[in-house]
Amino acid sequence: MVRNPVVDGQFYESDFSKLNFQIEESFKSKKGPGSLPVSRDEKKKIRGVIVPHAGYYFSGPCAAWAYKEIAETHFPKTYILLGFS
Predict the structure, then answer these.
(1) What are 24's strand-pairing partners?
(2) How far apart are CA 34 and CA 76, in angstroms?
(3) What whole-number distance in Å separates Cα of residue 72 and Cα of residue 42?
(4) Nearest in space to 13 (alpha carbons), one of 1, 2, 28, 24
């Protein structure tokens, strides 16, 4: 089952190319990590990340810090996702 987006165009761009640009700009932002993720370091490990849950306009650069760390770290065997609202 695939859930269709319910807030596209409100909290993030509904057009794919605009959304991709919005995400890349979050990484490149002065408030973000400043660059897109680079090569993966298999020795680097993280125990967890906390990522804000808000529109990319508001939280994209902050979230990009966490996603960059995840992208540049080896893949663990287990993930635990918690979501609160």
Answers:
(1) none
(2) 25
(3) 8
(4) 24
